[in-house]
Amino acid sequence: MSTRQRAPVLERPDLSPAGPRQLLRDLSPEYAVNGLTGLIFSASGPIAVTLAVGASGGLSDEQIASWVFGIFLSAGLATIFMSLLFRRPFGFAWSIPGTVLLGPSLQHLPFPEVVGAFFTTGVLVMGLGMTGVVRRAMAAIPMPIVMAMVAAIFLRFGTDVVDASTSAPAIALPMVIVFVLLTAVPAPASACPRCWGPC
């Protein structure tokens, strides 16, 4: 009689953490370029959303600066720690849809209350993840529905490109042109950083 094994509440690493020698041996220009690309992306696109939400919510420059600092510090430390612990390329970042939903809250709630609500939400989400409820919910909800919910949150940012193309064409139009070119000719975007060609 076979018994069904329950998934562990906290996943454990399959391998022991790598030592300094192995970390140095695994470094390569290819990985450095990939890391730099991720840094440029996170410091440009998603942070622009955070700055826009903070400005629309009436936050001061000091509050926005501390928010951005906390984002990069927490995500960076979590990425380094979990990648070293599990010896896999884990990448941690903040919730962009959560940041978008934060905008209306900042317009009628004080900033300390919003921060407290986010901390409480984080603890609740962590608790749900440790119970295994999230794993079962993700398996039950079809991925197209999940992606449709995400698309609905980002819909306004997509339609704002049209307004930006008329109000600030020097900034918006080059971005649109590059996006269209890389979509039509994907070879440059998928080129290998080591040989700058398809691999």
Strand content: under 5%
User: What is the mean pLDDT?
Assistant: 79
Helix content: over 70%
Distance between the termini: 48 Å
Structural class: mainly alpha
Determine Rg (CA atoms, Å).
21 Å
Query: What count of helical segments does DSSP give?
Result: 8
Characterize the biggest β-sheet. Answer: none
Poorly predicted runs of 5 or more residues? none
Number of strands: 0
Order of helices and strands: HHHHHHHH
Overall 3D form? globular
Q: In words, what does this structure look like?
A:
The protein is an all-alpha fold and 199 residues long. The protein has eight helices and no strands.
Considering the chains and any ligands shown, give keywords for the structure:
8 helices; 71% helix; 199 residues; mainly alpha
Brief sketch in words of this structure:
The chain is mainly alpha-helical and 199 residues long.
Secondary structure layout:
Elements: H1 20-26, H2 29-56, H3 61-86, H4 96-106, H5 111-131, H6 133-140, H7 143-167, H8 169-184
Helix pairs in contact: 2-4, 7-8
